[in-house]
Amino acid sequence: MEKTERFFSLAAILVLTLLILPFFWLTEGFLFFHFLTENICILTALLLFIVGTRTYRFSRNSVVFFIGVAYLFVAVLGVLHTVSYKGMNLIPGIDSSMATQFWVARRLLESSSLLAATFIWKKELSFWKLGAGFLAVTAALIGSILAGIFPVCFVDGVGPTLFKKCAEYLIVLIGAFTLFRLKKLRVHMDLLYVRAIGWAIAFGIAAEVIFTLYTGVYDIVNGIGHLFYVFSSCLVAVFVCMEGMDKPYNIMFRSVYEMAIRDQLTGLFNRHGLEEITGKAFGRTKRYPLSYSLLLMDLDNFKTVNDEYGHAEGDLALLEFAKILLKSFREYDFIARMGGDEFVALVEGGEDMAAKAVGRITEAVEAWARRDERRRNLGVTFGMAARPASSEESLASLLVKADAQMMTGKAVKHPGRTWKGDPILSGNGPR
Would you say 67 and 129 are in contact if contact means Cβ atoms under 8 Å apart? Predict the structure, then answer.
């Protein structure tokens, strides 16, 4: 997620919790405010479930997957808390304690799940087994509440019971331990993502502390606690979207992009990659004047390697030559394989910088040919074209000039043979 996207995400959460929800609280009353906040949290939990489970096959992120499955059942308990809340009158014959019991059960499940997620990095998880486990726990919590086994959590006119306050403090302790455990995730996840979930847990802890202080279900303190919880839930959603969606898809699209601009054999840029990076480099010269030199290189007698030892040996020779080039140029020079045994380098600086590279490559190729009998006939011919800082010459024009010079060099090396330039480089052939 880009910096601007993170900013707008955070801004949207702040507007929601500081302006929109308080506005409805003041104008429509607490019950509507509570209904709205809970539905936002429920929808957020369902979003986490969808993202966490649907992206698992791409991300293989067990943490996000585990959290996603957990939040489906957190959402179920959230629905029961909402419909049983005092004033909703959707379930006859219940008191205020039931909604609070569902709240405590929900937060215990949620906080415990976030803590458990810190222990399962890179473990293979089964949706059905994980879902069955959460279903059993959730069913047990719901059954204990409906059967009257779950301890009373709220008494009208008195406020939260001792059990409810102790449960809140337990949730705070679980959250604090989860924050401590987050350092384990820093090894596997980007620090930005870990910070997002850390802040979500911190606001969840703050919400629980606030919930120990209210006395009535329509209390202003209770409302503030819900605002903190909404903020926490939204931050968890940001974490899951960043780690579950942005990261794997960015990696996937980056891989596709790299395949499009890289030569599959050598890993150097291909022609398309060279055109792209050269376009960017030449574009920058309009603001920051820089000179460039283009160096075209062709392996001499490369066909003899293929003929004597086979194409596999020829591929190996190309790989070895590519390594020579990588060692001979600077890290900010661009090297590409145009096809076959033809390579190109775009060197930052004048012809003197390219000439130094030619010397290094020539020495390396001669040593390469001496130490390996299968490379004894190999050499390299160069063609060079300069692009001064004031020039607006294109890559295609530089390639034509370098190709012509390289053909002249080959004619000097082999005076009895006729050499023709590359039809693609010279512009006479299909592109």
Answer: no
SS3 419: coil
Contact 79, 42 (CB under 8 A): yes
Three-class SS of residue 334? strand
Q: Measured between alpha carbons, how far is 425 from 319 in angstroms, rounded to an integer?
A: 23
Domains 3-255 and 271-413 share a fold: no
The DSSP element (H or E) to which 224 belongs, if any, is: helix 220-241
* 300 has catalytic annotation: no
Contact residues for 260 (Cβ-Cβ < 8 A; gap 6+): 272, 273
CATH class for domain 3-255?
mainly alpha
Q: For 325-364, how does the pLDDT look when each residue is reduced to its tens digit (9 = 90+)?
A: 999 888 888 999 988 899 999 988 878 888 888 999 999 9
Q: What is the pTM of this model?
A: 0.64
CATH number corresponding to 271-413: 3.30.70.270
Side-chain-facing half-sphere of 401: CA atoms under 13 Å: 13
Alpha helices in 147-219 (DSSP H): 162-185, 191-211
Domain locations along the chain = 3-255, 271-413
Q: Give the span between the Cα atoms of 212 and 60, in whole angstroms.
A: 38
Catalytic residue from among 263, 298, 333, 341: 341
Residues in a beta bridge with 319: none
Please state, in angstroms and rounded to a whole number, the distance separating the CA atoms of residues 311 and 20. Answer: 69
Which residues 6+ apart lie within 8 Å of 204 measured at CB?
110, 111, 171, 175, 228, 229, 232
Per-residue pLDDT of 257-315, as tens digits, reads: 667 788 888 889 998 888 888 888 888 888 888 889 999 999 998 888 888 889 899 89
CB atoms within 10 A of CB 213: 15
Question: Residue 402, exposed/middle/buried by CB under 10 A (0-12, 13-18, 19+)?
Answer: buried
